[in-house]
Write a structure and sequence with these properties.
20 helices, alpha+beta
Length: 662
């Protein structure tokens, strides 16, 4: 638990401390049964700053909202002092662990919420002119006269400084950036940021654009910005990231990664989309059109790599060409100057990589490999051979008992409804069954492709110690072999963007673990986002930002230090009794203690893949179980590196912490 005094003193860098309270404070404190606080206390985050509506319009007559609004919490000093005491009281309960009701927490936390600004762009349907506004609430007149005004864009934002203060106040752990004196060190803040679109509802054609971020070493997701996107609405990348880039540079905050799916990532980087000819973000390969789609054959993988310097040169060339020819579209796929280039010490090539979740599991595993394997056509119908393959693999996968950290237990394969996490666990635990039926129904070549793909996934999703054992040349040879065999099996028309991006995995893995550059953590939080507003109501973005801030109070240390699920007995759905140490040894839990576990060693032998004996599966942790040891061992929890899955054929599959808590 954080120290109360250090957390409160952490606000000393936010604004000047107020003087000792006067008689009104003492009287109000006495009425509440508390002692008057006569110390010098720094105020909470400046949640109640005066807001001015910034109206820009050619005709002054249309400046309908050019007034100054003051939030309710700023009316009078009494309310301000009351908010300060609520902030201190909440922190005191939080730091000492005293149980208080959720309604009390929500009421007190609501008083210290940072200011949520609403910015909009409205068109006058009569004059066809636009005007913009920024404030704390949306104008009532827009809703009263829908025939005169049309709202095109509405952003609800919280300043980055307020998000950092909020996180420091309600959260601590490995992600802490508050020094010993309680001062926030903004230069030590490291962020991973994403933008994404979420369906607003099942019946609405509009989408919900959200900006999400998380701090290094923490899985807690914050939503500092949200808006409703109208269908076919023109989007400007500056409206998405311009304000964030400016605030990050002012605070000297480090942005580790910008992660997103392929369409949003191309939009943020001002790059051709994944269906374009120059859509690769790692090299300058130019795709070819085969069967009315852009593909990347195996002969095009050895192209010049993209770097930050070459990216800037291409942007400069594009701007020079547009001076003489304004219709110039792109230079090597780059369509303009991205606002991300203005971030300090940000490499747009290395720090905005492809997303592993969409690239590996939803893209390559599901669409590029599984779909042609089972023969699913464009209509979604499956061939009879595909039905036999699916039934055989599902029968094996249903018998697998996964660790309890996974939200989905094993179930029969459903192609359109399987989640990315389920594709990941199904392939890594059922690849032997899959290769057996594929070898019987189709041939050994396709079974070898699936085996090589599974081995590379074990390698790249493992810890750094395993990845560093392999040379770059060996990895390039395996990727080239995978690419050649895939093209020979399915033809050049199947060499999609995801397959080409898969070839660049060694370079992406060197930038950091896949869990650091994946959107999986953010996608898991979007379920809470969809439950934080009421469809069909006004100010949806405001509801999301406010309620997500309130929900973050209920989730604290478990995001920095996830609670391990260790149990000596198994259930019908999950198995939490097999653990893995740093030397890739498997153990069976007999007794769980506070800081250690009593285990017995699971003796193993080297397992050789029947489809390809050259792949060293033992180096990535896949082993064959032989018998249990006789000696009881006391194993500290700090030495645990993951869990294991014991398959019915005796194979032991490693599941590392990064894999479980991604």
């Amino acid at each position: 638990m954080p120290d109360y005094e250090s957390v409160v003193s952490g606000w000393s860098d936010l604004s000047p401390p107020r003087r000792s309270p006067g008689p009104s404070d003492a009287e109000e404190a006495a009425s509440d049964g508390e002692e008057a606080d006569t110390s010098v206390v720094a105020p909470p985050p400046d949640y109640a700053r005066p807001i001015e509506f910034d109206i820009m319009h050619d005709d002054p007559a249309h400046n309908l909202f050019a007034v100054e609004f003051v939030s309710d919490q700023q009316i009078g000093d009494v309310t301000r002092r009351s908010s300060v005491r609520s902030w201190k009281l909440f922190l005191k309960h939080f730091c000492t662990g005293t149980p208080i009701s959720y309604d009390t927490v929500e009421r007190r936390v609501f008083q210290m919420l940072p200011t949520i600004r609403v910015s909009w762009k409205v068109q006058n349907l009569e004059t066809k002119k636009f005007f913009h506004g920024v404030g704390v609430s949306f104008p009532e007149k827009i809703y009263q006269d829908r025939t005169l005004y049309e709202t095109l864009m509405t952003w609800c934002r919280v300043d980055l400084r307020d998000i950092i203060r909020w996180h420091a106040g309600v959260h601590s752990g490995n992600c802490s950036f508050v020094d010993a004196d309680g001062i926030i060190q903004y230069s030590q803040v490291h962020l991973t940021v994403t933008f994404d679109g979420i369906p607003l509802s099942n019946t609405s054609p509009d989408n919900l654009n959200v900006m999400a971020l998380r701090f290094r070493g923490c899985r807690l997701v914050h939503i500092p910005a949200a808006r409703i996107a109208k269908r076919r609405e023109p989007k400007c990348v500056e409206d998405f990231v311009g304000a964030f880039v400016q605030q990050a540079n002012e605070l000297s905050v480090t942005v580790d990664y910008f992660v997103a799916d392929a369409p949003m990532r191309a939009f943020l980087k001002c790059l051709k989309g994944h269906a374009g000819r120059h859509s690769c973000e790692s090299c300058e390969a130019r795709g070819v059109c085969i069967s009315r789609r852009i593909v990347y054959p195996a002969c095009m993988v050895h192209q010049r790599a993209r770097t930050m310097e070459r990216w800037l040169d291409a942007v400069a060339d594009l701007e020079e060409q547009r001076r003489s020819c304004p219709q110039e579209n792109n230079v090597k796929g780059i369509m303009g100057r991205s606002p991300l280039l203005a971030l300090k010490d940000f490499d747009i090539v290395r720090k905005a990589p492809t997303d592993p979740m969409h690239r590996d599991w939803l893209g390559l595993a599901r669409n590029t490999l599984w779909r042609p394997t089972v023969g699913i056509g464009k209509s979604g119908a499956m061939s009879s051979r595909g039905s036999r393959i699916t039934s055989h693999v599902s029968q094996h996968y249903r018998r697998v008992r996964l660790p309890g950290e996974f939200t989905h237990a094993s179930r029969p394969i459903e192609f359109p409804h399987f989640k990315a996490q389920e594709w990941k666990t199904m392939i890594l635990t059922s690849f032997m069954s899959l290769c057996e039926i594929v070898n019987t129904e189709i041939g050994l070549e396709l079974a070898h492709i699936w085996t090589l793909f599974t081995f590379l996934m074990f390698l790249y999703y493992g810890p750094d110690e395993i990845f560093q054992q392999f040379d770059t040349k060996d990895l390039d040879d395996m990727h080239q072999l995978f690419y050649d065999e895939f093209q020979e099996e399915f033809g050049q028309a199947a060499c999609s963007y995801n397959l080409h991006a898969f070839y660049h995995l060694p370079e992406v893995r060197k930038m950091g673990r896949f869990t650091l550059v994946s959107t999986e953590t953010f996608e898991s939080a979007y379920g809470q986002v969809q439950m934080s507003y009421r469809p069909g109501t006004r100010n949806v973005g405001l509801q999301i930002v406010r309620n997500m801030l309130l929900k973050s109070v209920n989730h604290t240390h478990e995001f920095c230090e996830p609670k391990l699920k260790l149990e000596p007995e198994t259930t019908n759905r999950f198995d939490n009794s097999i653990v893995l140490d740093e030397h890739l040894n498997f153990y069976k839990i007999k007794l769980v203690k506070k800081r250690s576990v009593t285990v017995v060693r699971m003796l193993t032998s080297t397992w050789t893949c029947p489809w390809d004996g050259t792949l060293p599966f033992d180096m990535v942790g896949v082993k064959q179980f032989t018998k249990y040891g006789e000696e009881l061992i006391e194993l500290p929890k700090q030495q645990l590196k993951g869990k294991g899955v014991h398959l019915h054929n005796g194979l032991l599959i490693p599941m590392y912490w990064d894999f479980l808590f991604s």
